Amino acid sequence: MALIQSDLASEEVQGLTQSSIENKLFDGNLFLVGPMGAGKTTVGRHLADLLGHAFIDSDHEIERRTGATIPWIFEKEGEAGFRLREESVLAELTAMSNIVLATGGGAVTREQSRNYLHQRGTVIYLYTPVAMQVARTSRDRNRPLLQTSNPEARLRELLEIRDPLYRSIAHHVVQTLDGSARELAQKIIHLIQTNEIK
Fold first, then answer.
1. Is the pLDDT higher at 37 or at 196?
2. Taking the domain 2-9+18-193, which CATH number applies?
C-alpha cells in the first residue's frame, strides 16, 4: 500500500487536462474510506467529476432508500441495525462499474463490507488527524456517534479502532492535511496518470 502525501507542486497538477482524463486513464471503481470529517463526500464528488465517473455517497443512498435520516435509523435500530443496512447497500453499490463511492466512517466495521470494498475496486483511505476531524464535525448534528459530551475523545477512540481496519483494505493511504478538496482530487488523479496508483 502506498502512503501519499498531498504535497505535489501545483504545477504538477496543472497538466491535468479534461482531454487527458477523457482518455480513460483510470477504468474501474474508486472507493473512499476514512473517518468522519475526512472529506470523503467532497473529494469524491471532485474525483467523479474529473474522471467522468458516477458519484455515490453510501450514507445518502441509505437515507434515500429508507426515507429516514441516519440518526433516526440509529435511534430505532441501533448501530448494529444500521450496519446491516449499510452492508446490504454496499453489496449492490460495489457491484457497479466506474463509480466513485464515498463510504460512511464505520463502513469498515463489518467484515463482509470490507471484503466488498477491497475486492471490487481501488480503496483510497483518506487519513485525517483527529484535530482536523474535530474542526470539520464540530457543528454537525447528523452524526449519531458524536452526540456525546466529549466528541474529540470519541473520535480518538473510533480512529484507534478503525484505523487498522481502513489500512487493512486500503490499496493506498492519502493524507488530507492541506489544500482544497479539488486540489486533493487532482493530485490523486495525477498519481493515477503517472501510474503511482494502479
1. 37
2. 3.40.50.300
